[in-house]
Amino acid sequence: MAKPATVTMPATDELYREVAADLWCSDKLQIDDDAAVSSSDCGAWVHAWVWVSKDNAGIGNERPE
Prior knowledge:
The protein is α+β, with helices and mostly antiparallel strands. The protein has 2 helices and 4 strands.
């Protein structure tokens, strides 16, 4: 039985950003349209923003005296 052909696309920064956005973006993680991409032979790291609320950081809303 013949093995199906694999269709490949060139690995570009834009492609990595799009795939990262599709896989990971949410209300708590965002990827800029021009995010930095660090490519390697096996994939790429894509720069992302992660949301941290004041509550998560243990910062209260009290005003200093």
